[in-house]
Amino acid sequence: MQDATGTATAAVESVSRDSRHAFSKPTVPEIRLIKGFGVEGDAHAGATTQHRYLVVKDPTRPNLTQVHFMPAELFDELRGAGFEVSPGELGENITTRGLDLFGLPLGARLRLGADAVVKITGMRNPCSLINGFQKGLMKTLIGTAEDGQVIRKAGIMGIVVTGGTVAPGDPIRVQLPVGEQRPLGVV
């Protein structure tokens, strides 16, 4: 997307939610973010962790994975590698366009639409269910850089600090944290 001056702008491309713990989430016209809770009506919303594998480890753990973001540019890249992936199919709540999600530092805040703000908590670690969705996809979403660093492309996670409604076409504005910019780890 571009603004009136031709400058590239970041925007919400799609939103998704599902009340069931399913791998993919259906797209919807809009979602409502609730402070400290997540996406209203989504199985992963809650003050404590709702992800099945994390609940087993510690059901009292704070939910740092309330909102899942995925860049639409990744879907473009995957199409070039022979995969067909659409918004919501990898379980994300918000699909973005025009924003380097993986380059954001820990604690960055994304202002979505008129009111909502999500604080970024880390990267999603790709899980083996991805290969059940499309065989071989997992290898495309996790790899190793030349310097030996693991590269994860399964999206980033965050917590809702200010609630609000989010819909396709809403602008996304980034507020970087004050002080040292720390890279994202896995949550």
Fold and architecture overview:
With 187 residues, the protein is an alpha+beta fold. It is 13% helix and 30% strand. It has a single domain, classed as PK beta-barrel domain-like (M1 Pyruvate Kinase, Domain 3, Beta Barrel). The chain is built from four helices and 13 strands. The strands form three sheets. It has a seven-stranded mixed beta barrel with strand order 1-6-5-11-8-7-13.
How large is the share of residues in beta strands? 25-35%
CATH hierarchy: architecture? Beta Barrel
**CATH homologous superfamily label:** PK beta-barrel domain-like
Structural class: alpha+beta
The number of distinct helices, counting runs of at least 4 residues, comes to: 4
The helicity comes to 10-25%
Can you tell me the CATH class?
Answer: Mainly Beta
Provide the domain count: 1
Q: What is the CATH topology assignment?
A: M1 Pyruvate Kinase, Domain 3
Question: From N to C, what is the helix and strand string?
Answer: EEEEHEHEEEHHEEEEE
Round the mean pLDDT to the nearest integer and report it: 92
Largest sheet: 7 strands, mixed, barrel
Distance between the termini: 30 Å
Strand tally is 13
Uncertain ranges: 2-7
- Note the overall shape: globular
The value of Rg in angstroms is: 16 Å
- Widest sheet, order of strands: 1-6-5-11-8-7-13
